[in-house]
Amino acid sequence: MEDFKNLRVWTKAHELTLAVYQKTRAFPKEEMYGLTSQLRRASASIGENIAEGCGRRSDAEMKRFTQIARGSANEVEYHLLLAKDLSLLTNEEHQDLVAKVMEIQRMLASLVQSLKVPILAKS
After folding, report:
1. How far is CA 43 from the centre of its chain?
2. Is the dihedral of CA 9, 11, 12, 17 positive or negative?
3. Which of 6, 45, 88, 94 has the fewest C-beta atoms under 10 angstroms from its C-beta?
């Protein structure tokens, strides 16, 4: 696998994480160890897992870590919905961040599909 910084999906995930950090600065202090922390960690986890998969140097490992990143993206999508429903994000902020997450989810799905991992024969 190539350097993770050269992957468009990693760049998009990093940009999402920066946007999440920016938006969560305005969250109430009582959410610092709750929703703020969960949303930040889940968004950072997307890029982290892409980077770790690239570092493993095998398509099978890259596929596994890409699937974990997809799970983190789904987690971010839920946390964003919760933040909107708690009126911590405006509808516009929510829509903007969700659009970014959905693009990343599509890119991750394509990346998983592109990884050629042989199916093991059953004994």
Report:
1. 5
2. positive
3. 6
What b/e readout covers 46-66, taking b as 16+ CB neighbours within 10 angstroms?
A: bbbbbbbbbeeeebebbbbbb
Mark 76-98 as b/e (b = at least 16 C-beta within 10 Å). bbebbeebbeeebbeeebbeebb
State the pTM of this model: 0.90
Please give the Cα distance from 1 to 4 (Å, whole number). 8
- pLDDT tens for 47-64 read 999 999 999 878 899 999
What letter does residue 88 receive in the DSSP assignment? S
Measured distance CA(65)–CA(36) in Å, rounded:
24
> Count of alpha carbons within 13 Å of 93, Cβ hemisphere only?
19
